[in-house]
Amino acid sequence: MKCDRLVSGLLLGVILLATPVFAQSNVQRLNTDGIAKAMGREGELTGEMYKVSFPRSDLTVKVKNVAIKPALALMGWAGFIKSGSTAITYGDLVVLEDEINPVISKLEEGGVEVSALHNHLLHETPRIMYIHFVGTGNEAEMAKAIRDALALTKTPLVSVASKPETKPEIATEIERIIGYQGSMGGDVFHITVPRNEVHVMTMGTMLPGSMGMNTPFNFQLDGKNAAISGDFMLLPAELNPVIKALRANGIEVASIHNHLLDNQPPMVFMHFWAYGDAISLAKGLKAALDRVGS
């Protein structure tokens, strides 16, 4: 009897050690301190993803008479997740036209690959472009490569403390229309719509939704009006129904492109822009959102 209990106890111990809860103790953790040191600023940890943001507050960008706030469409960022013994980085950098190729060369020199180059806005002055990148390797080394690329631009590399912001009353109505809660940041109202039914894998690793695998709606509120910008993450079959819904509601399509290189399933990212009545634009975004997953 004593022998049977001993064998049972040993088997139980083996089973417990094999469960995910116990196995997690052997998983290597992301070196967030190393990333922050290499980047020169702290980031934010969301689940397993660490994100460092770089607003282009040095730029004065206008679309006609609308001054674009960095939080609306001028925010560079780099996300990092652990993948076994290595790490993956993904994000995009906001650049002026004459910064594009020096930044691309510096990223390539540091072993970080470029995955896309495109616009997010229309009619803006000066012309702004966005470089998407992906990489795999040591997280601190990749962070340094990204920082070295940023140093070739006039991007402010020192973080500025942010203050709590109160949502204006109109934001509540926008939330009701879209069907998701939002928050203020950088004087811009943000709603992030998840795509929980789509699991995007790249470089053999699943990317969390917080790592750009979602649909962000950004409202730069101006009384009852708003400038809106963001992008839909779409399966190929969803692209044209969403385009039709946006155009039917006076929202402009700014660009259509990939963000990654070898992702499964294939995803298309479509950026939009508009300025007008905030409630009408929210209804237009909702009409397009209703075409997603259908």
In terms of per-residue confidence, which ranges show pLDDT below 50 for 5 or more consecutive residues? Answer: 1-27
The number of helical runs is 9
Strand residues, percent: 25-35%
Secondary-structure class: alpha+beta
Summarize the biggest pleated sheet: 6 strands, antiparallel
Mean pLDDT: 91
CATH architect. name of the largest domain: 2-Layer Sandwich
Q: What is the C-level CATH assignment of the largest domain? A: Alpha Beta
Helix-strand sequence: HHHEEEEHEEHEEEHHEEEEEEHEEH
- Whole-Å distance between the termini? 61 Å
- Looking at the structure, what is the overall shape? globular
Number of strands: 17
CATH topology of the largest domain: Alpha-Beta Plaits
Q: What's the number of structural domains?
A: 2
Can you give the helix content as a percent range? 25-40%
Arrangement of strands in the largest sheet: 1-2-5-6-9-7
Keywords:
294 residues; alpha+beta; 2 domains; disordered N terminus
Layout of strands and helices, then pairs:
Elements: H1 2-18, H2 20-23, H3 32-39, E1 44-46, E2 49-55, E3 62-63, E4 66-67, H4 70-73, E5 75-83, E6 86-96, H5 100-109, E7 113-118, E8 124-125, E9 128-137, H6 139-150, H7 169-178, E10 182-185, E11 188-194, E12 201-202, E13 205-206, E14 214-222, E15 225-234, H8 239-248, E16 252-257, E17 268-277, H9 278-289
Helix pairs in contact: 3-6, 5-6, 7-9, 8-9
